[in-house]
Amino acid sequence: MKKVLLSLAIGVLVAIGLMSVIKGVPGAVWKFQQGYDTSVGSPFESSGSTARYVLVQAIIEDKRFDLTEEKAHVSSPDIALFEGKYLTIFAPGVSFLGLPLYLLGRTIGLPQFMTYLLNPLVSLINVFLIALLARRLGAGTLASYLGGLIYLFATNALTYALTFTQHQIAACIITSAILVALSKKRALSDFFVGFLFATGVMMDIPNIFLLTPVVLFALSQHIKVQTEKSVYSVRLNFIALVMLLGTLLPLGLFAYYNHALTGSYLSAPQFLGRHVIGGEKSNVIESTVEVAQPVQEEQNASSGFKIPFQTRAQLQSGYILLFSKQRAWWYYSPVILLGVVGIWIALKEKKTQTAGVLTLATVLINLTTYSLFWDPWGGWSFGARYLIPAAGLMGAFLAVAISRLSKNIFFSALFAVLLVYSVWVSTLGALTTAAIPPKGEAEALADPIPYTYEYNQDLLEENKTNSLLYYLVFANSLSAQQYHIFLTAAFSVVLFAMYLMTIELKLRLPGRQKK
User: Fold this and answer.
1) When comparing pLDDT for 293 and 407, which is higher?
2) Residue 323: inside a domain, yes or no?
3) Secondary structure string (H, E, C) spanning 189-256
């Protein structure tokens, strides 16, 4: 009963926290339902969200998968042109999930608002999934929930919980797949690993790589190596074929979508390349920084489709993701880096080694995959949006570190400082914009803007925010900056109070906090 009440309390806290930053302005909230306001901080500021949302509208309102010219224009440059038809270049999974929410929203006159609730709902689920994974890694119950909450409120996951993009959903699928793969119910878990793998691909094609460690781990449970007179034989249990069955429905749906647009079950619009209407980019500007694009264009000409991964880009892209203040964790959410301590603890203990290795492998694959990406910035974005799934897994490792080291004064002091800073940055993005340009583009603008969260600070100084709760409740008493400070303090106090509770439990129940 206590665990149920704790889960309910965590759910309420997450809901309140998300409500405090949900986008909408009295008056403008209705405008968002009728048109496409692409101003800074609006739900349609990024073509990554807009292109997926207009696909929802196209399916329901127009009964088609391709886009009208109006919808294509607001989605540019994230569209392709094929045989006279405008197509969104994104995999359709996010849009498919948004269909029932759009239908519900349309009945009450809030289609955009309801459709965009998809990611807040998934974010709530992610908190609990990360907590479950943290338990498998050896963390205590309260610390596990804390790891999930830190992921949501102290990383850029909060900012992207307010968008209509794939990042939160990818984190959900990847974390779920790890948990399912670690289950001992092999046939059932294999089916769901296959299902989650295929569903992940339908959300975003690079998830093929991010989910590879989980698939290989699941397959390895069915491989038997026998030795007879120095002759080795490898056998794969036929039950592993159940995994293939799990992929059929999602991949079949994806193939149907591709065929309807391109005439080929395997040719996805994502491989056709971007088309910019009128030679202008209406939303997020593509990267103009030279990384490996010349090489890419040369390969595109010969291969017939565009691929975003380039080995020549790895050094610079890895630097952007790991060390540059344009996107790196140490600058946007350094508290998550304390999860490295949790990695060491999880790998050291025999009973958590398997879960630790699988989770760490997924983190490393996430990082490696996007260090090969010619655009590691993620266009105009807030922090390393490509690493949001890895941030969730690091949140689970952080919970392990908290369980073990919360009584350590040095660790506690460092945790407190990094937590407040990370929450401050996280809420800064959620209250303003997720569209921060790469350095090269920011400096090349006619009116240059900062290429870090300093841009978000400038917006708050101008009292620019799109928080619905702020305008409904606090606008007459607080400035946008003061509201930001209020949220930072509130989130930090709640999170650190939970941290102190883990210490108190250790003192009261020594040796039993993991039970």
Assistant:
1) 407
2) no
3) HHHHHHHHHHHHHHHCCCHHHHCHHHHHHHHHCCEEEEEECCEEEEEECHHHHHHHHHHHHHHHHHHH
